Structures are given as C-alpha cells and as structure tokens.
Model the fold of this input.
Amino acid sequence: MAEFDFIVLGAGVAGLAFAKRVSEHGHSVLILEKEREVGGLSRTLFHNGFYLDFCAHRFHTNNKKLLQEVLTLPGMEMTRHEKKSRIYMFGKYLKYPFEIQNLLRAMPPAQSVLSGLSFAKNYVLRSVRKKPDIKSYRDWFIDIYGERLYDVMCYPYTSKIWRMDPANLSADWADQRFQGENMAKLVKRVLKKLVTLDFSSYSIEDDSLAPDGGIFYYPQKGIQELPDALNRAAKASGAVTLCEAKVTKISRSERTVTYEHGGQTHVAHYGDIISTIPLPAFYWLQEKRDPEVEAAFKQLKYMDIIFVYAFVDRPTVSNDHWLYFPDKDVIFNRAVEFSNWSPEMCPPGKTSICFDITTYENDERWQMSDDAISNQVLEDAYRTEYLKRGEVTSTYVHRLRYAYPVYDLNYGKLLEKVVGFLEEEHSYLLGRTGIFRYNNSDNSIEMAFQLGDNFVENKARKTIFRHEIKDVSL
Ligand SMILES: Cc1cc2nc3c(=O)[nH]c(=O)nc-3n(C[C@H](O)[C@H](O)[C@H](O)COP(=O)(O)OP(=O)(O)OC[C@H]3O[C@@H](n4cnc5c(N)ncnc54)[C@H](O)[C@@H]3O)c2cc1C
Done:
C-alpha cells in the first residue's frame, strides 16, 4: 500500500498551497481532485478562444510576505490593476464603492434629503449611544449608515445575492468581508466631503479607503494561472496531484483513503488527512456517523451560481472590471468584462462578459434551460443599456456548486458541531469550501501556509477553525 505523510482532498488553491509548503520541507503528499483540472473555485474555462473565470477573480492581500511568495511562484506573471467598478441604480451607472454624496445626488430629491439626514443623524448619535448588540448584517449596516441608506445601499443587493433578508444573515459575513476600521474612515471622509460640498467623483485616494480594496493583481490568461503555479511548485518538490480521482472511502481508524483513478481502485495510507472538499462530502466518505451532524447539514447551506458568458464583437463594452446590478428585476448580480482584466483573455477585437446568478440547486433558476437563462440575461442587459441589442454573437452557460458558504444566523453553532466531529488528531479541515468560511483566495492560501508551517514546525496546535484564524490578516 502506498504511504504518504499527507493526503489532501481537493486541489483548489488551499489544498495546493498546503501541498507546496509541506512538500518543500520533505514531506510526501498525495492530492486527490475530482475534476479534470486543478483550481476549484479559482478555475478558468477555455471556450472558443476566450478565457473565462468564474466571475471576478482578483488577487489581493495585505500580507506582504504572502504577496511576495505568490508573485514569485515559478512561471507566475501577474499585472497590477486599479479596480474600476460601477453600480447600476436609479437608472444610472454610479461609481462603486459608493460615493455617498453621488448616491444622494442620483436619488429622487426627497429620498435624497431624508437619506442624507438619516445618515448624518446616525453618525452623530453613534458617537454617544451605547454600542448596540450586532447580530445580523442588517444590524451591522444600520449601525454605520442608518436606516434609510440601509434600504438603498444594503437591502436590495444583499437580499438579491443571498436570496434572503439581511436581517437573517450573520454579521460575521460583514466582519469577514469588510474591515470595520476602514468603514469608520469611510464615514468620516464622506461627511467631510458633504460638509465641504465636494461632489467630485471617483479618485484613487478614496479608493484606498474603500471596503472592497483598490489594488489587485491578475495573471495574463485567467486566474487558473494561480492554482497552476501552486501545483507546479508542489510537484517540483515531489507532491503527487491526481485529477479525475474519485474518493470512495476514508477510514479514520486505519488512516486510509480508497479512490478510483485511471480505471483502477487504489488504497493509500496517510499520516494526516487534510480536507478542502465540502463538509458533507467529507463526512459521507467516512464510516463514523452522528445524527446531530446530519441534522446540521440540513441547515448549513452552500449557495450555487450560474454563470452566463456573452461574447461580443467589439473590443470593450465599458472600462470597468465589473458592474453591480442590485435591481431585483435584473436577473444577474454582476457583469464582469474580461478584456479589461487582460487583453489576452479574448481574441483580438472581441470581448466577453460574465453575468452571475446566485441560486440553489433545487431552485427553479437552476433548472432553467441554458437558452432560457441566457435570453433573460441578455434582455436585462439590453434594458439596462449595458449591451446593445444584436451585438452578442453567442452565449455559454456554466453551473457551479458550493460557491458560497451561507452565513445565516444559526450557522456558527451548526458549524462548530460539524467541525468538532470532523476535526480530530490526523484529520483537518482547510480552505473556503473545506471549513465553510467566506475566504478569498489569499485567505485560503494563507490558512494553508499557516497549517503547513504548523506541521513543519511540529506545533501541537494544528486546527485552523475560524476562531483561531483571527490573527491572519484578511
Ligand atoms: C463567484 C466567485 C468570485 C470570487 N471572487 C474572488 C476574488 O475576486 N478574489 C479572491 O481572492 N477570491 C475570490 N473568490 C474566492 C476564491 O475563489 C476562493 O476563496 C478559493 O478559490 C477557494 O479555494 P479553496 O481551495 O479553499 O476551495 P475550493 O476552490 O472550493 O477547492 C476545493 C476543491 O475540492 C474539490 N473537490 C470537491 N469535492 C471533492 C471530492 N469528493 N473529491 C476530491 N475533490 C473534491 C473541488 O473540485 C475543488 O477543486 C471568489 C469565489 C467565487 C465563487
């Protein structure tokens, strides 16, 4: 029987980064991936000469050491970009992240005055009132912006992407997605602009304070180059990556994994197993059962996405990297234009757009035919004057499961139950999908390097559950 120090389930960036780290220190690693390609959520499809990411995939991190390691991966070449983004509201394309003064100007006048007053009142009261008990994303947003801006800036887009009321979405999501201290600076900046009647539009200085960050890095031919480079580095140090591998059984007592690959069944022994695959998938591969964990899986949900790609016979449609569409009458959430990320993404003189639609596998949208969903996307793109009727030459549809962990108000307790059951000595969870954490790719890589370092340095504590990741810079 083959023996490995580590067997890693899943070759997304987390699994690959972990394999890179430990194999560079002489450990043997087997990575088992079910898909034909490595990359997981950070994959790039190739279709009729176009490179197609799963929506927007920019690489950015505050961790300089991590950035340096990623940018110098063998064969990795990334270009630095300044994010350009807009949001379609009140029939206009506004700069994004919001310039509140511009948002107020775009609104109908009465709504604008009331929203502006509500924002200012909230800001003043915030400094004197007792800190409220913040449980939901709604609480979190209202605490900073006030009720009226919540109705405009938060409710429409958030309820649209998550398919639920932000009052039922955990505030943890905001904490992971935005940085609170930057939000405070943002509020101050906007107030200063309002007081000085400065209604200028987008500027680079403002962007550095934006919750979404301003600078990012991106490869020439899609984000796939990132997992490919991690995989090359891991393999160069001796790690073995098997794609199209079907794991059929995990025995935690014997520390073995049974899998099918190349038409044959194999059994391999591990020192430690690292899972980056969906939590239920990892659970059902094992013989050990727990009714409470199974009950938790019924509520702990991952959200799925449909991507509709449209191919257009002109060099660019807009100069944005992406645009947001919070209007619930528009079926898609965002439009991402790949030729603005790298000219090599599209054949010369052509561009491609990715429209994303969040959904669940059992939802009627998931069941729509490719033609029906493409037609609806195009109709909405014409109505909002994002695309011109007749300029789209063709479309392509891709459906992606397990795209987002859903942080509803109960997820924390349920997750603790599941993680407590699955994580034990010699069995560890890692990454966005593997630990149900709203990670960007840099977070997944950072977690993986940290776990790898803990093994290499032989630290007793190896679990990377969400409470212990606080010191990782997000
Ligand atoms: C629409 C969208 C936009 C995003 N935008 C950005 C962005 O702009 N910037 C950014 O940094 N991040 C972004 N992310 C997040 C980023 O994609 C993820 O954080 C990262 O790719 C997660 O990597 P991972 O290895 O943790 O998980 P995954 O990529 O999910 O890896 C899990 C792997 O396990 C494999 N697997 C599943 N089941 C099995 C099984 N039974 N056996 C074997 N293998 C299995 C999967 O195929 C996959 O390869 C975005 C994600 C999405 C969905």
Summary: The domain at 44-95+213-219+302-405 is CATH 3.90.660.20 (Polyamine Oxidase; Chain A, domain 2). The chain has three domains: 2-42+224-300+408-471, 44-95+213-219+302-405, 100-199.
